[in-house]
Amino acid sequence: MVIEWLTFAVDPQNRETFIRLDNDIWTAALSQYPGFISKEVWISPDLHDQVVFMVRWQTREQWKSIPQAELDAVERRFDEAVEFDYRMIDAREYQVRRYPSPR
Question: pTM for the full model?
Answer without folding.
Answer: 0.90
